[in-house]
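anyone seen this seq b4? input:
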Amino acid sequence: QVQLVESGGGLVQAGGSLRLSCAASRTIFSIATGGWYRQAPGKLRELVASITSGGRTSYADSVKGRFTISKDNAKNTVYLQMNTLKPEDTAVYYCVSDRSESGFRYWGQGTQVTVSS
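predicted toks r here
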């Protein structure tokens, strides 16, 4: 089992920045894909960004050029730097890890990000 604990969410004005962190209870991001999902009320869950064990990244079109995913394998931590935030980025953000054909095996509890206009 792997526990994922997110931090860094909060309230920010449009155009501002936040950095989310996700700390894993054991080594996982160096051997498996990690990422961030988000879900806003009434909307489908969206995979925002992912990073492979080798460091290859991918992003949803809605955040390309604004969000950056990174990781520190030594700290078992993955980050999501969010710049130029928009009100439509408001959602609960979930850290995930260990991707398989059926989806991600481990999920964090989520952290709220609210962007005011």
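The chain is about 0% helix and 55% strand. Residues 39 and 45 are 5 Å apart (CA to CA). kinda curious what u guys think
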